[in-house]
Specification:
With 175 residues, this protein is mostly helical. It has nine helices and no strands. The longest helix is centred in the C-terminal third of the chain and has 36 residues.
């Protein structure tokens, strides 16, 4: 089994598109539905205006990249043989990472929670895309699932912080 980009991408529905074509958004259908170039420009605007969280954006990419690398090691199906960076430019991954996951109302509110929330979105999006080839776009499902768990993530982060502060205060009192 080879893990080159051409071999992996050709195996998926007979497509033969380069990473550059997917990055520019000139591929028809759901594989190239978005222009990553335009999304990156939108990300710059959102970050400069302070609307979106860079922590969530970066952690989504890290989570998706780590899951993609893990699947590259396994290589059991054609989606697992794709280079990990193809997942960033295919379909709605970039759009979801920049515009959907960073919604300030439904995302995690604590800084640590934002890292966890984003990482899990990226990992789940690639997991859904790879494990179920009949559902090649898992980004929106991953975001919806993690939106349900964002309050729980924040609660756990705050509870852990309170517990840590209590232990630290008890140690200082004993001295």
């Amino acid at each position: 089994m080879t893990s080159t980009a051409a071999t992996g991408s050709e195996m998926i529905a007979g497509m033969n598109y380069s990473a550059l074509e997917m990055f520019l958004g000139v591929v028809p259908g759901s594989i190239g539905e978005t222009s990553t170039v335009a999304i990156l420009l939108g990300a710059v605007v959102l970050l400069l205006s302070g609307i979106a969280s860079w922590r969530i954006m970066l952690s989504v990419v890290l989570g998706g990249g780590m899951m993609g690398l893990l699947f590259n090691l396994i290589g059991a199906n054609a989606y697992m043989q794709l280079p990990f960076y193809y997942h960033f430019i295919m379909g709605g991954f970039a759009f979801g990472a920049v515009f959907m996951a960073t919604d300030p109302v439904t995302s995690a509110q604590t800084n640590c929670g934002k890292w966890i929330y984003g990482f899990l979105i990226g990992a789940m999006a690639v997991l859904i895309r790879v494990v179920n080839p009949a559902y090649p776009e898992g980004m929106m499902l991953a975001i919806l699932l993690m939106n349900c768990f964002a309050p729980l993530i924040d609660h756990c982060v705050v509870s852990a912080n309170i517990s840590y502060r209590k232990k630290r205060a008890q140690v200082q009192i004993k001295k």
